[in-house]
Structures are given as structure tokens and as C-alpha cells.
Amino acid sequence: MKNKNAVYTVVTGCYDSVFRHKYICREWDYICFSDAKIDVPSPWRLVLMERSKLDNGRKSRLIKLLPHKFLSQYETSVYIDANIDVLDDKLEHVVRRHIDFNSSMALAPHPLRDCLFDEAAACMRLSKGNKKKIIKQIKEYHKFHMPLHYGLYCGGIIFRRHNESCISKAMEMWWQELKKHSGRDQISLPYVLYRQKIHVEDLFFDRYENFINNTSSFKINRHNKKLSLRILKCVISLVPIKQWRRRLRRQYCD
User: E strands along the chain, which residues?
Assistant: First the structure.
């Protein structure tokens, strides 16, 4: 370790290919965790994951959610999805501001929704996750009086002071929720933040700005085995989310 901040990504099951970002910050260490010996370009450093009985999705999220267990030697970390390319120095400046402002955690708000119940409805309509597990999950969250429109976040880029006790405790709870329920981390994160009373800063200091819309600063490449994000956004935009949310709450939560 030569720097205090780590940028890291996770690749399992050959879901993504790792590429060199167009913009590299020399003050960050770049680490790629993978369950296979894959080729990674400089400055990425490959770290092989221990063998696990977890499915590929949960293997990936184990490290995504728990940087305090895998990157404890660093003061701060930036998780980034392997399919996101950084094109300029905007992320570097944003992270420096969060470090200067002593932010504990920062994410970009979701561009389409602000409620985990809406996200659950979208996941069910798009067959993203086990329907029965999602229903059980939102029923449990409703019992704990999870408020509507509490916030929803993009998990593609996450800044954290991961060694802070409040953050590591919240991340441990996030991992337990993901193991227990559907595996959709965007559904469980707002609940964890609510229960743990964690304040999350807007990654770009503007709640209406997100990395998806920052086309000059970020490029989102296609996953090896998934639809492009642009196609997925088009599909989601056609889903009657409010109608589904009302249906879910009336049928499973009342």
C-alpha cells in the first residue's frame, strides 16, 4: 500500500471485463477482486478471492459491501462497478471534497426512483430477483415502519470511510440483509440506513446529478451477459411503478 485511498472493483463468473480507465488518479491504489485469474491492465492489481459456496452475485457483493474486511489498511475506499469507465478527473475532485468535508459515505441518488418499495416493484416486473423473497423482504420492512420515499441510490460508485465503526456496522447489516433476502442490494440499503441512522451524502453534491447522466465524465459499458443500461432504463421507464407499489403494499403489507 502506498496511498490512503483505494479504488476497487469485483468481477465474478466472468460477468465483466476489466479495462484501464481513461483517467487514472496517481494518488489512488486500484484493486480488482476476482474469483478467477483474469487479465487486468495497469494500474489495476488483481487479488484472488477465497473459494466460496456463495453464488456469483453474493460473492461479488460480499466484497462490495464489506471493504472494512478486505481493505482495512486504507482510510477511504471507492467501490466502482467494473463496467464503468472514468473519463476525466471529476470523480477524483468529488472524492477529495468528501475527504475534506469528512464525509462518511456518499452515493449518487437513483435517477428514476426514490423508494425501496418502488424498486421492489421494478425488480419483480423485470424478474430481477426471487419474487417470493422480495415479497417477504418488503413485508418485513413494512413491519419495521420503513417510510416511503426515504431514498434510493445507485450502487455503481460508493465512497466510504469504511473503518468508521458506524459505517462498518451498517455494512455488516447490509450484508446480512442481502444474505437473508432477495440479494438486491438497492432494496436493502435504504432500510439499513434508516435502521442504523446513517446519513449519506450525495456523491456529486447535487441530489439531481448522478454518474449515469454524466456522459462526459463516465461511460457505462455493457456487461458481458446483460442488456445495456440504456435498454434497461427504457424498459424500467415503461413500468407502472406507482400502481405496482400500491398493489404490493395492499396485498402483502396491510
Answer: 5-11, 28-34, 45-48, 76-80, 84-86, 105-109, 153-160, 201-202, 218-220
The three-state secondary structure class of 108 is: strand
Q: Which residue has the cell 442481502?
A: 178
Asked if residue 233 belongs to a domain, the reply is: no
Global pTM value: 0.87
Assess if residue 187 is contained within a domain.
yes
Instruction: Tell me if 141 is assigned to some domain.
Output: no
pLDDT tens per residue across all 254 residues of the chain: 568 999 999 999 876 788 899 999 999 999 999 999 999 999 999 999 998 889 889 999 999 999 999 999 999 999 999 999 999 999 999 999 999 999 999 999 998 899 999 999 999 999 888 999 999 999 999 999 999 999 999 999 999 999 999 999 999 999 999 999 988 999 999 999 999 999 999 999 877 677 666 778 999 887 665 434 443 444 444 445 555 556 555 554 55
Domain hosting 200: range is: 5-114+153-222
- Strands 5-11, 28-34: pairing kind: parallel
Give a yes or no: residue 124 inside a domain. Answer: no
CATH number of the domain to which 14 belongs? 3.90.550
Q: How many domains does the chain have?
A: 1
Spatial separation of the C-alpha atoms in residues 187 and 181, rounded to whole Å: 10
For residue 190 the three cell numbers come to 435504504
